[in-house]
């Protein structure tokens, strides 16, 4: 991933509120198209321009060939706010981020955690992030997918806090197969698989279990089949169901208790 600076030069008299709205509209369009990562974009006024710092999944992420209709429309609206065409300067690789794949994998997995700022679509074998704009979206862009990711990350952070509030509510949403969050995630994975003619697995989180002795032998929650792997996939997933396109892990609390 790359750290970049985006410069919006003033080309006409404008008001800060108009400029701020136009820049925010444009950057949010980039986020929902997967061309920009994260939720924050610090922006400073330098006297003759507004400069925003952002993280990109690839060096060419802001190329026009990747732009959605929403991005193009937001870009056109910058001029109405007195701003010129955004100029991008790559500052270098972001040393604090995960590195994306170099080519589109044959199999993908929908997987994220509270700490991630990268794409929620990963290589199913290495868990390296996959730029969303390399794929065919199920809609106009990836807003539904990004909003699903934000909900998942918020719940994941809640259930990991030491002084936890609504812990079980958050954990149940994350690990119950039929929770609204997981139904939505599986639907998104299915749509992306159909649009891109390749398997998109869904990673089902497992944090706790009622019986750690039986956890390693649990059945697939989707079809009831045997899904235990002899060797964990991507060093994380102990279970894989080819029928339901599900991946999962032995509950983390059971791994901790057994020293696995």
TrEMBL record:
It comes from the Bacteria. Pfam families: DUF2310. InterPro entries: UCP029037. This is Nucleotide-binding protein. It comes from Alishewanella agri BL06. The lineage of its organism: Bacteria, Pseudomonadati, Pseudomonadota, Gammaproteobacteria, Alteromonadales.
